[in-house]
Amino acid sequence: MHLLFLQQLLNGIQLGSIYALIALGYTMVYGILRLINFAHADVFMIGAYITFYATNCALDVTHGGTNGAASLGILLLAVLGCGVLGVLIERLAYKPVRNAPRLTPLITAIGVSLFLENFCMLPKVFGAGIQFTGTIVPGDSRKFHFDGVEITLNSVVIIAATLLILGVLWYVVSCTKLGKAMRAVSFDRDAASLMGIDIDRVISFTFFVGSGLAGAAAFLFASLTHHELHPDMGIILGMKAFVAAVLGGIGNIPGAALGGLIMGLAESFVQGYAPAMHISPSYSDAVSFLLLIFILLVKPSGLFGSSAVEKV
Amino acid sequence: MSMCRSVSVVGVILASIILVGAGCSHNTSGSSGGSSNIVIGEYGALTGAESTFGESTDLGLQMALDEANASGGINGVKLSKQMYDDAGIPDQAKIVVQKLVDQDGVTAVIGEVASSNSLAAAPVCQQAKVPMITPASTNPKVTQVGDYVFRTCFIDPFQGAVMASFAFKNLKARRAAVFKDSGQAYSTGLASYFEDTFKKLGGTIVIDEAYTSGAVDYRSQLATIKAGAPDVVFVPGYYTEVGTIGREARELGITVPLLGGDGWDSDKLFAGAGNSMEGCYFSNHYSVDSTDPHVKKFVADFKAKNSGAVPDAMAALAYDATRILLDGMKRAGKPSDGSYTSDAYRAKLRDAIAATKSFVGVTGTITVGPDRNAIKPAVVLEVTGQQYKYVTTINPQDIPT
Amino acid sequence: MVLQLVAGIVLVLACCLADAVISAHANAYVIDVIVNCGVYIILAVGLNLVNGFTGQFSIGAAGFFGIGAYASAALTVFGQTSFLARFFHDGSPVSPLAGVIVMLAALLVGSVSAGLAGLVIGLPSLKLRGDYLAIVTLGFNQIIVVILNNINSMGGPAGFNSITVHDQAVLIPGLTSLTWVFVLVAVSILMCIRIRRSTHGLALLAIREDEIAAEAMGVPTTKYKVVAFVMSAVLAGVAGVLFAHSQCYISPNQFNFLISINIVIMVVLGGTGSVSGAAVGAILVVLLPELLRFVDQYRLVIFPALLILMMLVRPKGIFGHEELDRNWLRGQGNGIKKLIGRIRRSKQPAS
Q: Mean pLDDT across the stretch A59-76?
């Protein structure tokens, strides 16, 4: 039983890593614009497809073999591609409605999300069938045995990559000037602009970073877990990642990472132990939401969120 | 007066709904039943997640229609097809079938693959007294809707029993784990029928786990399944997830065979699974490498027509369903008033379809039973070298009831 | 009082007349589209009470829609074999009066269960603000879908259309007629317009404008928010009853959060805070995919593109906060006159 527990723990951390990377994008955009970026999940989806097509090209060159340099190149491509896409979406669709009442940018975000999903489903674009990404990362199916617990190299890479990315993000946000500007704009947009901060540039940078993180998550998801790709794949995943972001306190970066981890662990344990507890395993989907609702009722602004004092 | 204003608001809105309705009645798209052709209606998913099923079905149906037209059609009248996309959504299925039946003058309707869409559309056909044949919906409830609804594939109770019997008798398995897709009726239905038969034969179900198709991975459930030490794992899901499940199962160290149903049938299974499905088995409607001359001809003709694409089970089932419909039309004879859309003709057609006996199809020899379901065998295929290899055929008589 | 009663009877008779006229000329497909419009109008108008009047952001309407549908379907199907047996013969009501009685019972059950769910969900949720409320309502919507997926006696994920009793299929009766749709749409719209003009409505609007100020003025904000939420749930439940008895097949996936988002789009498109806006928005969103069917797969791309365009060009929606009445029409007329005047002036040669 102790073995099973360790295995589920490991699974949960791996799952949580992917949720965390996507949740960060949601939380960063919300912090700076107070906007729930529904299109974020679809940027993730496009990142996964970028990975897929790039891997196919790379595999043609390497004749089916794995290649570390190529993998890094594809990762970079996914990150940059998603980043640029995020900035484009912001400039074209969100900037014009930035100062409109709350609901308008939200509906625009929903529109962009639906548009991306259905556009990518057209036969001439990605098509509606599913795809699987080829194997380009070296050592893909290597396994380790650790006291009876099976760990694949892929899982290790996912967790390590996530920690690395979180570290870099922490550095950027707290130690660089641009990071400081981001935090300033999140805190009070007008005061920041009065202080001479170029709001447009900071917002674009935020979208770039947030979407880039989604691109990294997409690479890990497509290339290392070899999950099926489909234009609709972002919907459920995005919703869960968003729940994770809210769980941690939306707008709060460490909160999003922690929220993602908690979501991953909760899902893993519930799915794993449901039969033993005689709960129908199909209820596990509801667990993430029940968890969220419980936490929000106890601490309405999320785990790390600060309850904003509304001045009259 | 505020009352007047409220009433005027309501009035305008109701009026606009009616105008809209009038607008819709003029909006008949595509070839609305030209009286010179016999129109066969088709509905399926051309967009959305199930679009590969819809596309295959369409190709099989079209091939059958083309063959019939090449030999002169029915009683000298050519056949044409009116197809609508339901995007895999039940209320869309209902609306497009309503359109087919009301505005497009179809003689009969063929569709759908997913049972939930067939269930939504079947009452429409039943009420309009238009024969409907589903080529691939395996949920038993579909044909229970009424006497105008038929099915030319086997149903899930049979399929689940087939795999349970195969597991117990052929693979000598005594402990089984079940890993189903809890959001898909096909999967949950098949799982429960498997469990019933397996237990009846004397086996035990050690773990009952579930996943949903939006999940990131399946490792937590697979870890639990591994801990239960089963002899086989029954995964009655769709190929879209089963490939990844197979891969992760092997990564976690599960070495026993996985078993499944006709939802596995797709070449995309290997894209996701790689080598991990070797030595796994699943039940299907037909086998591409069958030596039966009918099947070989069908495969060759299909490849020729569709630039080398190999027909999958959906295409084969649709081909058979359409040919059974056409066979029924031949047996129903000429309509007395010349109209292929009259109630009288459709009633005769219904009777003719219901009387189908020992029809030689590419998916087996089909007899339509008294409950309007097809009595036909299932084949069990093994995955070898990333291909399907025929193992055995299981007939309805071999299954314990 | 008498005047209102007479007006009510006249309304019902008018709806019967409209029903008869339309049924004589239109086929079942058109009737289906009209019923669909009606169902979504009720949903949108109900959601407008919460999102529009009270300014709360709820994305969970489809959950109550589903509860209303399933509860009423359970009544009419399981009831056919027990206490409602005498109203039915061979799956259909024995007489129009029997049909009306069964439908009323179904409406009662559907709306009450949806309302109760609204109360249970609303009480804890409405303590949260803004986007948190949105997520919690979305969460509850998904939880409802999961629960419905697990009700095996009603089909689970396969959906529900009948049960088998003694080898006979007992189906969901097709009780929804155009008369019912028209009457219920009219009642919902009238109800919402009356609410808006009442003191109750003023309280809701005050909460929308500035919740803290409203609280300071003595408006019990939580109570009013919950009441609006429950009313919205009741309306969604009514829509669910109509839906279940016109489709005669319901499945849990037809009530997921994507449908909720659709309803939010309808409200925003028409103008958040406007009852007629919500209704017109609903008609547009139901109709556009039907009318665009000739472009086949591209319609799913065109529709969101139009939505984005709408938000960029006219974000307050078609009606904004106003209702479709003489004032609005006059306002539009003035706007058009101004536009024509400007075009004329720009065409004149510069003097």
A: 85
Q: Could you tell me if B276 and B320 lie in one domain?
A: no
CA B15/CA B23 separation, integer angstroms:
12
Q: How does pLDDT run across A92-101, given as a tens digit for each residue?
A: 999 988 888 7
Given an 8 Å threshold on Cβ–Cβ distance, is B94 in contact with C249?
A: yes
CB B138 within 8 A of CB B154: yes
pLDDT at residue B27, as a whole number: 46
A52 and chain C: CB distance < 8 Å anywhere? no
**Which CA distances in Å does C80 have to B122, C162, C173?**
21, 11, 9
pLDDT tens digits for C167-176? Answer: 677 778 888 8
Q: Which of B58-62, B363-367, C240-244 has the lowest mean pLDDT?
A: B363-367
Please write the tens of the pLDDT for every residue from B138-178. Answer: 888 889 888 999 999 988 889 999 999 999 999 999 999 99
Q: Tell me the two tokens of residue B315.
A: 């295409």
Domain count across chain A: 1
Residues B278 and B318 in one domain: no
- Is the interface score ipTM higher than 0.85? no
Name the residue with higher pLDDT: A1 or A230: A230
Q: What is the DSSP letter of B183?
A: T
Contacts of C204 (CB under 8 A, 6+ apart): C49, C53, C54, C195, C196, C224, C228
Chain B residues closer than 8 Å to C326 by CB: 5, 8
- Compute the Cα dihedral for B80, B86, B91, B93 and give only its sign: positive
In a domain, B122, yes or no: yes
Distance CA C92, CA C85 (A): 10
Lowest pLDDT segment from A88-97, A302-311, C79-88, C185-194: A302-311
- Does any domain span residue B225? yes
User: How many other C-beta atoms can be found within 10 angstroms of the C-beta atom of residue A85?
Assistant: 23
What three-state secondary structure class fits B311? coil
Domain residues for A84? Answer: 2-235
Do B33 and B135 fall into the same domain? yes
pLDDT at B1 over 50: no
* C-alpha to C-alpha distance for A251 and A29, rounded to whole angstroms: 8
Stretch B4-17: mean pLDDT: 63
Chain B: give the shortest CA distance to residue A283, in Å. 9
Would residue B373 count as lying in a domain?
no
Domain presence at residue A312 = no
Interval B315-329: pLDDT, tens: 999 999 999 999 999
Range with the lowest mean pLDDT among A219-233, A239-253, B116-130, C78-92?
Answer: C78-92
Report H helices in B129-278. 156-165, 185-201, 219-227, 239-251, 268-273
The tokens for A230 are 């489909």
Q: B243: domain range?
A: 156-284+379-398
Domain shared by B243 and B345, yes or no: no
Chain C's closest residue to A285, CA to CA, is: C146
User: How far apart are alpha carbons B277 and B47 in whole angstroms?
Assistant: 28
Q: How many domains does chain B have?
A: 2
Note whether A15 contacts B: Cβ–Cβ < 8 A.
yes
| DSSP bridge pairs for B281 | B259, B382
Is residue B250, in this structure, part of any structural domain at all? yes
Is residue A69 in a domain?
A: yes
Average model confidence (pLDDT) across chain B? 85
Considering only alpha carbons, which residue of chain A is nearest residue B215?
A237
* C146 in Cβ contact with A285 (< 8 Å): yes
Per the CB < 8 Å rule, is A118 touching C304? yes
Q: Which of residues 242-281 of A touch C (CB under 8 A)?
A: 242-243, 246, 250, 280
Parse chain C into domains and list their residue ranges: 31-257
Beta strands in chain C (DSSP E): 88-89, 92-93, 162-165, 168-171
The whole-angstrom separation of Cα B87 and Cα B50 is 8
Residue C218: pLDDT over 60 = yes
Record the pTM: 0.85
Dist. CA C4–CA B6, nearest whole Å = 13
